Amino acid sequence: MDRMYIAGCGGMLGQAFYEEFSQRAELRCTDIDVNEEWLDYLDFREFERYRADVRAAAPECLVHLGALTDLEYCELHPDETYATNTMAVENAVYIANELGIPLVYVGTAGIFDGRQEVYDDWDRPNPLGVYARAKWAGEEFVKHNAQTYLVCRAGWMMGGGPRKDKKFVQKIMAQLRGGASELAVVDDKLGTPTYTRDFARNVRLLLERRWWGLYNMVCQGLTGRLEVAQAIVDESGLGGRVTIHPVGSDYFADSYFAPRPDCERLINRKLALRGLDAMRPWREALADYLRTDYEGYLLP
After folding, report:
1. Is the terminal CB of the chain with fewer CB neighbours within 10 Å at N or C?
2. For residues 10 and 28, what is the distance between their CA atoms, to the nearest angstrom?
């Protein structure tokens, strides 16, 4: 595709999409947080402005990335969450259909209830909280109303480095940078990390082959928060100097009160059947991420 419009491109995943596609296509990238020179301002919740901006760019594909992802914020601000994570997605569907172009939407592993050991592309979601319900509603609208679409479900996202990563890896790295010699990490939350650069690359492969539909898209290998934290410490060269204390989720109940599934492990069954699973094992992807984006971060 020679021209693409990427909405909500200012975050960790948007950075990866820009890096992956900017050398291959003419991009129009927008966000409400204009934190890069290649970004322009647009609030995709404002339908008419979103529509006019996409129409002016005349893209061959619309990529809708942005979302509220802080689960506690979403729980406390349900109207804003549905406006951002559901209704803005509906805006994107209307626009893509009107222009006759495919829509790319990013789903989440968080839409499952955690009762199974793993979830493939065909397992039925059962969202627990406001964030999950809003994302599931957005995914459902895309699947039932978009003429041509690609829905890719991510797991525990990692990418963007210290400036854009607001997720688990950066939270652990920030503690290590602050000199922490002990970390409390939950041992009752299971999932699958998703490296943003691998994710963007795998989306490109599907777009190039025009394999539309729904795909789980996470790093290979099943893990949990505790194991990921230990891997971060080891990859940072601090094994033996930092002690990790396993704790239950109740330990952080005051700060992380939004409902979360105990298990949100995805497997890329459909990608594998297509022969297009380019997602690396999570440990390999994590090592690459820390080496690429955190070099010198822990130095005094």
Report:
1. C
2. 12
